[in-house]
Amino acid sequence: MTRTLVTAAILAMTGAGLSAQEVTIKIGTVVSGDHPENVGAREIERLVEERSNGEIDVRVFTDSQLGNQREMVEQLRSGTLEMTWVTTGFFGSWEPVMGALEIGYLFDDREHAFRAFDGPLGEEVAAKVEAHGVELLGFFEAGMRHLTNSVQPVEAPEDLQGLRIRTPQSTYHLRTLEMMGASPTPMAFNELYTAMEQGVVDGQENPLSNIYSAHFSEVNDHLALTGHLHLTHMVLYSEELWEELSPEHQEIVRQAVIDAQQVQRDKVASDDASLLTELEGQGMQVTEPDRAAFAALVAPLREDAIAEFGDEAANWFQLIDDAR
Fold first, then answer.
1. CB distance 87 to 80 below 8 Å
2. Residue 324 CA to chain centroid, in angstroms?
3. Averaged pLDDT, 98-125
4. Domain spanning 21-322: which CATH class is it, in words?
5. Can you tell me whether residue 32 is helix, strand or coil?
6. What are the distances in angstroms from CA 256 to CA 6, 40, 45, 146, 249?
7. How open is the CA angle 157-161-167, to the nearest 5 degrees?
8. pLDDT recorded at residue 157
9. Run of H or E residues at 236
10. pLDDT tens track for 249-283
11. Residue 171 above 60 pLDDT?
């Protein structure tokens, strides 16, 4: 056998001869295809495929096709899924201090959150999560969260008393709703519509884009603009699969995520500007509660987090305050 044929045979056996065109990146999300998260996903897809000259094929799976958020994070950690995103607090299941970032009213507005996560806070968060088998590539906006329910208008904390409100499985997120007066019920997002339809929970809290795209106006009549949480998604890649990419492909993917951040955040902003009118047109009754009353009830959670996590939580809160 000639040297050329021997070399070809060895490459075929080892896999080293695999074509660059065979690199595939799967992105999994839990929301509908037109949601701002998937606008960001499609932008990553476009940029990666364009900049790699077709060497990387990106495939976006929406609507929990690949599982719920917890399942997809575990897939990242086990090396069976390339990319997904979850909020900082959701990652508290693996790194408990992350939950402290979902205490209510930590951020004044979206710009405040961007300054914090695009700065030193983001670097410290990356160091935490990357100890758990993932690579943190950037931050998408999850958005400002508001309350909906099927029982009554919410004007003040007393109006939340006894209402069963779904929350994500995040300790300080859940405690925020509890301090605000609700009875929080953790539940996966893809189970929520049916749970409200069947009366398992009375309502939920999410950004306007989630409320609209998931058709929650069909099962909830009341929308309260509480603005109690501004959440940030961490764009995560499987560490195991990241190390299989060439350095050139790693740089293409990392830069694509960074460039897609602005497109995704712009979509959230444009939706927030228009969707309130859409939801009112669908019959939702909108109230604008006094946020200061809710913020005062939630404030003690900062000290609770510092008591639980010590200087690390205190430092993170200081970085957030410094970004105001």
1. no
2. 22
3. 97
4. alpha beta
5. coil
6. 39, 10, 8, 30, 10
7. 90
8. 97
9. strand 222-238
10. 999 999 999 999 999 999 999 999 899 999 999 99
11. yes
